Amino acid sequence: MRLRQSHRRHCALAALAALVALVLAGCAAGSPQTGAKTFLSEHSGAAANIAKSTKQLQLEVSRLSSAPSASQLSVLARTAAEAHRGLIAASEWSVAGQGEEGAEEEDVPRAETQVIEGATELAAAVALLSAHPGAPRASALAGYRSKLAPGRGEWDEGISQLWYLAHASHPPTL
Fold first, then answer.
1. How many domains does the chain have?
2. DSSP labels, 61-117
3. In a structure prediction context, what are the per-residue pLDDT tens digits for the chain, which is 174 residues long?
4. Do 84 and 147 lie in a common domain?
5. What is the residue range of 151's domain?
6. Which residues 6+ apart lie within 8 Å of 169 measured at CB?
């Protein structure tokens, strides 16, 4: 009789331990850290390339003379095209984890949405530069600069939050 009670108690404890392990595994799988690490594994390379090309474009725009040379315009067009391609691709990234409940679980989708909205805004800014095949007009440069600031703010905030949630360093900010 004591053997049966001991066996039942052992089985009950084993079942309880398995249940606790399952619950803990489920919590870890849905954690913001996991969602952010998934984002990084899928998009960190592209995000780094976008940051690089967008920074390069900003530099090229700042170097434009009042009467830009053909070589300046050629470099600007190439850099703008590269930045635009990456930004368009990023603006189409999907937001994971929509519909999850709880403030912590919403951090990743919110940050991903900021990155996507920032990429969309930045793509629109870059498109203004490539709309004029010759020298960009003053209005195009002004439009680029006005769209650049909010796009960069959205991108930087979202990217920084995702890198923070993933416990990663050096987010590709602009």
1. 2
2. HHH--SS--HHHHHHHHHHHHHHHHHHHHHHTPPPTTTT--SHHHHHHHHHHHHHHH
3. 555 565 555 544 444 444 334 344 444 445 668 899 999 999 999 999 999 999 999 999 999 888 888 888 888 888 999 999 999 999 999 987 554 444 456 899 999 999 999 999 999 999 988 776 667 778 888 889 999 999 999 999 999 999 999 999 999 999
4. yes
5. 32-165
6. 163
